[in-house]
Amino acid sequence: MELRLIKKVFFKGTIEAKTGVSVGGSSTGLEIGGADKVVVRNPLTSQPYIPGSSLKGKMRSLLEKLYEKFHPGTDEKGNPTAKPCICGVCLICKVFGVSAEEKGMPARLIVRDAELTKDSAEQLENSKSTDMPFTEVKTEVVIDRITSAATPRSFERVPAGAEFELNLVCNIYENDDEKEILGKVFEGLRIVQDDYLGGSGSRGYGQVSFRIDSLTYKDQDCYEKGSESKPLEDIEIPQELK
After folding, report:
1. Which residues does 185 contact at the CB level (< 8 Å), separation at least 6?
2. CA distance to 16, 28, 184, per residue, from 202 (Å)
3. Which of 18, 19, 156, 217 is most buried by a 10 A CB count?
4. What pTM, to 2 d.p., does this model score?
5. Cα(first)–Cα(last) distance of the chain, in Å?
6. CA distance 203 to 46
């Protein structure tokens, strides 16, 4: 599918952890005495981060549930499944894309990995209250319903109050309704705020808030001249995301 790119819109801001966030990582601690469930880290800095795939996938799945836009199917055992929508027509498909094996529609939305802000990285690195570098370890107990035996499990989390850098890029193509496309991105962020990001959300983990500090764009003229991005003045950032 050939599409003419009109502009790239840049969302820049922060993601604040309102409660401890546990995203990614393996299910087994890598060290003796380590947490059973660890967070994903940058191997060069050891700093935790939020993978762009985690945020983008959460936005899409919640929007598809909200609008019942998913593709029903079955797994190898015949159990019902609900896969991402592949209609290639709805706004969710336009924003998040459809794989090449299906309709082959490119995603308009790019979600960058969210690194810790400089201030949060410094605070966590120098903190004497963290259990592991940059993170805390929360221990929970599973009770056997028959024997009443208690099995403790530990989960690594980025502490509440930590902030990550929010960086999104949205491609606007010829004949796109720009306000409609960007509005769906805003909606995806708002619904994640009312849900959770990462694991164990039903137990209080992963409540986050988004703050968009700037909304800018680059068009053909910017790239030809090598100029800076321009303020996107005709699109208003929703109050819930300020």
Report:
1. 11, 59, 95, 109, 168, 170
2. 19, 21, 25
3. 156
4. 0.88
5. 36
6. 26
